[in-house]
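Why run this: before we spend reagent on co-expression, it is cheaper to look at a predicted model of the complex and decide which construct boundaries make sense. The entries below are exactly what would go into the expression plan.
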Amino acid sequence: MQHGCPDDVEYFHANNLTADTRMSWPVLYAQIVGANRHSTSLGKVWLSVLFIFRVMVLVVAAESVWGDEQSDFTCNTLQPGCENVCYDQFFPVSHIRLWCLQLVFVSTPALLVAMYVAYRNHSDKKRLLQGSGRAGFRSNKDPDEDLETLKRRRLPIAGALWWTYACSLVFRLLFEGGFMYALYVVYDGFQMPRLVQCDQWPCPNLVDCFISRPTEKTIFTVFMATASSICMVLNMAELAYLVAKAVTRSLGGQKERKTCRKSSRERMQNKTNQKLFVST
Amino acid sequence: MPLTPPAEPVISGHNRETTEDPELKMNWASFYAVISGVNRHSTGIGRIWISVLFIFRILVLVVAAESVWGDEKSGFTCNTQQPGCNSVCYDHFFPISHIRLWALQLILVSTPALLVAMHVAHRRHVDKRLYKLSGRTNPKDLEQIKTQKMKITGALWWTYVISLLFRIVLEVIFMYLFYMIYPGYKMIRLVKCDSYPCPNTVDCFVSRPTEKTVFTVFMLTASGVCILLNIGEVVFLVGKACSKHLHTAGDSTMGAWIQQKLCSF
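The model came back. Tokens follow.
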């Protein structure tokens, strides 16, 4: 299936799917939720915060606030082209588009984890099929049942999966921080002014231009920035939790190895004592 | 990874006749799917609350209120030809639209229910682990854990009551915010504005003020009903817990003392 070809539209209408279900927020949600099975509890909380407080608020509320941003951008002049030019100077990228990009970039590192899990399942499946082939019909278990448990199992976050997961968290943090900084730099803070003064050609001299709904836009910008910060805090907490878990696991493993070595030394000593005892 | 579109929601079929953006309804509908999953672990009053929320608030918001407020800015006219005066006066009198406030209110008020869902999921996870440790790895037993209804006792009782209190507090906060921003809950027909760049004082006219007042009162009444339902649910849960405590504490001195006092009347 190739996206963007005109035949796709007929295919989808024939299958009772609208163009909106093809590539939209619910589709992204379906993808991310699948990857969520292997995340920690903090990861699941992060996903809920992302989809309820950010994607939902964006689609349900914020998009209608920014809907008339260009049509209602009015300049105090009759000069044709002045409004277009001034709008373009003060709004190089709209908030809505920046947020959409941010949400898409921030959600996709979870797919790294999903790809790794799929790769692991694929290699384990191969091993399972080879093993069952060699064993022939001696095993009692049905190989299909094993494949199903393979698909449904939840992998523990250790080893290579730990590194993949930690990398995805670091990428998420970088993207969140990067986009928030970009928004802050492009719009000189999170507040939307009511009036901007513009003197780009073809505007005659300095011209007052008025932005539509500045207070409502400021409220939503602050809301989305807060939600973004909460998500960053959750990601940092999750990263700290993973690191702590790995450290305790390695410490526990070291202790076990020490006691194992100790006990094997003791066993050797006991054996030699027994031999000595028997010989005397 | 297969791309599976979400299941067709109940609400969207009703709205297809309107010219609403289908993706908008899809998101309220997917929100409905998330919240109604909590329904299984709620009390009877909780289920009534969820129905009132979705039918009398979210559905009314999407189907009716959004079209009433649709032309709020384009229909806001000031008695001047000064460019920019309309925008500035609109922004001065409507810092945040009713529709956005209601959407935020509905999202924030519904999310404490997810606390309960998370607690139930955690309990199920712990039960599964205990089953596996005790050696019962029968898949039927594990499936039963998934489908059994959790009793609202112990820590779950506390989570549930805390989520109810959060709901009540958030509802009251939003009703207060509404009162602060739009005093009297009434939409006025005419506002007088003198912010720059309007020359002197200018008359500005709000579009559909009566219809907006009707819907504001309707949504506030629905909000009030939801608050009452939540308070009722808290009282019910506390009463249930108290009566259970009294029954089981029959042998203890406190319970015996209370019973003695009650018998003496």
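Residues 169 and 235 of chain A are 6 Å apart (CA to CA). Chain A touches chain B through 48 residues (CB under 8 Å). Bring this page to Monday's planning discussion.
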